[in-house]
From TrEMBL:
Keywords assigned by UniProt, alphabetized: Coiled coil
GO biological process assignments: CENP-A containing chromatin assembly
Biological source species: Furnarius figulus
Coiled coil: 6-33
Listed GO CC annotations: chromosome, centromeric region; nucleus
InterPro entries per UniProt: CENP-P (IPR027801)
A UniProt-annotated Pfam family: CENP-P
Lineage: Eukaryota, Metazoa, Chordata, Craniata, Vertebrata
Protein name: CENPP protein
């Protein structure tokens, strides 16, 4: 065989080794997430869930509940224009009173797509829980609109997701109206 054939096999082996490495890391992350919870916490969660559901429910009740939730979700998507396409969460650190999680979220608001990545720091003191968003990064299709870029930079700096979602909803709705209007005149 010539060197080209060997190189193709070497490249394939390298790609498979990288895929194995990525899958191993993902598996370890999942294992790490599950080890953060003690048996006591898991049992407490199960008991609280069972207490809320008040016993086993029939499949027809669960189906009706699912249909109701889907209808609510559809209503909220029509009302706000948001449609989330993916979300991932990774716990980076968990101690007795402090938890750090990394979130990745992507979706669309009307015709504008966005991606968010941020860390959520949750601390507990004297029974009170406080959360802080850090390391916020927003990627948006803003085209040449410098105002959107300035707005995104400001939101990233202040870490204010509520402002981002409220403003994006309004902006995207009017952006969609403008887009349809200009298409009508073309």
């Amino acid at each position: 065989m010539d060197n080209n054939a060997y190189q193709v096999y070497e490249d394939e082996i390298q790609a498979l080794e990288e895929e194995i490495k990525l899958l191993t890391e993902k598996y370890e992350d999942i294992q790490q997430e599950s080890t953060f919870f003690s048996e006591e916490e898991i049992l407490k969660s199960i008991k609280s869930f069972q207490g809320e559901s008040k016993g086993p429910e029939s499949p027809s009740d669960l189906k009706a509940q699912l249909e109701s939730l889907e209808a609510d979700l559809s209503f909220l998507m029509k009302l706000t224009g948001f449609q989330f396409t993916s979300h991932s969460k990774k716990t980076l650190e968990k101690t007795g009173d402090r938890t750090v999680q990394k979130h990745r979220l992507s979706g669309n608001c009307y015709s504008l797509s966005f991606q968010l990545e941020f860390q959520l720091l949750e601390t507990q003191s004297k029974g009170k829980v406080s959360t802080v968003i850090t390391d916020l990064s927003i990627i948006m299709e803003s085209g040449e609109d410098s105002d959107v870029s300035k707005f995104v930079s400001s939101v990233e700096e202040h870490g204010n997701l509520i402002t981002f979602f409220r403003s994006l909803s309004t902006y995207a709705e009017w952006y969609e109206h403008r887009r349809r209007t200009f298409l009508h005149f073309k």
